[in-house]
Automatic annotation (TrEMBL):
<dbReference type="Pfam" id="PF03123">
    <property type="entry name" value="CAT_RBD"/>
</dbReference>
<dbReference type="InterPro" id="IPR004341">
    <property type="entry name" value="CAT_RNA-bd_dom"/>
</dbReference>
<feature type="domain" description="PRD">
    <location>
        <begin position="68"/>
        <end position="173"/>
    </location>
</feature>
<dbReference type="InterPro" id="IPR011608">
    <property type="entry name" value="PRD"/>
</dbReference>
<keyword id="KW-0677">Repeat</keyword>
<feature type="domain" description="PRD">
    <location>
        <begin position="174"/>
        <end position="282"/>
    </location>
</feature>
<dbReference type="InterPro" id="IPR036650">
    <property type="entry name" value="CAT_RNA-bd_dom_sf"/>
</dbReference>
<dbReference type="InterPro" id="IPR050661">
    <property type="entry name" value="BglG_antiterminators"/>
</dbReference>
<dbReference type="InterPro" id="IPR036634">
    <property type="entry name" value="PRD_sf"/>
</dbReference>
<protein>
    <submittedName>
        <fullName>PtsGHI operon antiterminator</fullName>
    </submittedName>
</protein>
<dbReference type="Pfam" id="PF00874">
    <property type="entry name" value="PRD"/>
</dbReference>
Length: 291
């Protein structure tokens, strides 16, 4: 019987293994790494109920994310993704492992620091994606119960969008068009910041995910409520990144021929400021090394 061979145990629920068909893979499953040792063999029949990250890029991003995430949360997200697969009877884009785990981990940190984030797309999300919204309600309920937190209803909307992204089956021509556009937008950001974002980094994954959601909202014709308070804060505190965000939205408008709601600028500014800060931190570290 075919089997995988343990190459590295990342934690109790995640291992890196050599797969007979896909070479090195990341395998996620409850207890899959418990008491496992290097070169242990695991029958593929027992892996069928688990997720296998086949993409090398996705693997690298997931490996970077794992040390930052509670093991218990990894197990809970795995249960949630199994629930979504069974509820929808559809395969999931494997990127959701990274995107959803990263999002929930960040949401829990915001909760612990008492930093609320309002979701301006909550009502529209519930109306346009009712089935995915129900799945997201289950997800947040399970997370609150399992992690001992009280994430707000706003997070249901955010999680629902991740589910929509993972389940969406779009025409290849549109996917290519959006992929090209996102690549061009990333190039504009890098040229402006004079900083190349590592392609296997979480920063790159986060920015691409956000841009995908912007394009998805435009494609669906979703309206975005104005957030004047956040808009004023972003414009005042991060004027350079706010200007860059405006530039990006104008590029999007010209390419997709659909107006971009001004509120999108504020949320994009948040992501750009994170990248700008990351660049400053790296420059500071290089300066210290030289000294």
């Amino acid at each position: 019987m075919s089997s995988i061979t343990v190459a590295k145990v990342l934690n109790n629920n995640v291992i890196i293994a050599d797969h007979p068909q896909y070479s090195e893979v990341v395998v996620i499953g409850k207890g899959i790494g418990f008491n496992r040792k290097l070169h242990d063999r695991i029958d593929l029949s027992s892996v069928e109920k688990m997720f296998i990250l086949r993409s090398q890029e996705e693997q690298e991003q997931y490996k970077q994310l794992l040390p930052q995430v509670d093991e218990k949360l990894i197990e809970i997200v795995h249960e949630i993704l199994l629930y979504i697969m069974h509820s929808s009877s559809q395969p999931l884009n494997e990127h959701v492992h990274i995107a959803l785990t990263d999002h929930i981990s960040f949401a829990i940190r915001r909760y612990e620091q008492d930093i609320p984030i309002h979701n301006p797309f909550l009502y529209e999300t519930k109306e346009i994606y009712p089935e995915e919204y129900k799945m997201a309600e289950y997800a947040i309920e399970r997370i609150n119960e399992g992690m001992g937190v009280e994430l707000p209803v706003d997070e249901v909307g955010f999680v629902a969008l991740h589910i929509v992204s993972a389940l969406s089956n779009r025409q290849i021509s549109e996917v290519r068009q959006h992929s090209l556009l996102i690549g061009d937008l990333i190039g504009i950001v890098e040229n402006n910041l004079e900083y190349r974002i590592p392609r296997d980094s979480l920063d790159y994954s986060r920015l691409v995910t956000h841009l995908r959601f912007v394009l998805e909202r435009l494609r669906r014709g979703e309206s975005v409520r104005e957030t004047s308070t956040l808009d004023g804060l972003m414009k005042r505190e991060y004027p350079e990144m706010y200007t860059l965000a405006w530039q990006l939205t104008k590029v999007i408008e010209n390419r997709v021929r659909i107006p971009v709601y001004p509120a999108e600028v504020s949320y994009l500014t948040v992501h750009l400021q994170r990248l700008a800060q990351k660049k400053e931190d790296e420059v500071g570290m290089e300066t210290k090394r030289e000294i």
